[in-house]
Amino acid sequence: MSQNITLTDDEKDCLQELMNMAYGSATAAITEILDAFAKLSIPTIQIINAEELKPYLSNELNFNEEHLVALQQINGTLNGENMFLIDKKSATNMAQKFGLTEDEINEDEICDITLEITNILSSSTISKLAEDIETSVSFSAPSIKIIKSIDELNNIFINKYQKVIIISTKLEFVDLNINGELFILTTDDSILFIKEKLNKILDEL
After folding, report:
1. What phi, psi does 102 have (nearest 5°)?
2. pLDDT tens, residue by residue, 52-80
3. What is the sign, positive or negative, of the torsion defined by CA atoms of 8, 185, 188, 136?
4. How far apart are the C-alpha atoms of 158 and 192, rounded to whole Å?
5. DSSP-based three-state secondary structure for 105
6. 123, 95 in Cβ contact below 8 A?
7. Where are the beta strands (DSSP E) in the chain?
8. Which residues fall within 8 angstroms of residue 140, CB to CB, at 6 or more apart?
9. Is the distance from CB of 183 to CB of 83 less than 8 angstroms?
10. What pTM does this model have?
11. How many Å apart are CA 36 and CA 55, to the nearest integer?
């Protein structure tokens, strides 16, 4: 089955346009909560072998400092996982933007705020994408941990699937020195389902 799990250029372009619209909803929600202009970069989309996920993330992220990683399972025909990674300094700056003083900021508070941002990103982006491809999804409760290296990242996709489609975008608040990265990971059967829906959209153009 893995040889069929690819996206054509037209399919990628279509999915990228859908994700741009979905990220617009997320940007508006986060901007309103933090009262600061949030920027989500144009999403990058690629399919890799599942065992290449950790090397990919290691190359994408700077693990010279601690990161918070929040994971949230996506359930339904569109099945997968949202993964939000943010360095600890950015997460601390985000906590200050939520109104916490330096004395109030601790590891638990930083984790709680990161989980809240993850919930907003997940519900805004995936719910909008699900609506556009005519399906429904639900979300499991997110989990969070602080990691010092990519080897500490436990991810179900590495062992359970052949292929992973990565939809990634960077969350940036330029004036606040806050930078994070959102990865939407869907796998195998979900990739084929997305292909089917994308082609339906392309056929109707």
Report:
1. -60, -35
2. 888 888 887 777 788 999 999 999 998 88
3. negative
4. 18
5. coil
6. no
7. 39-40, 44-49, 67-76, 80-87, 137-139, 143-147, 163-173, 178-187
8. 72, 73, 75
9. yes
10. 0.84
11. 33
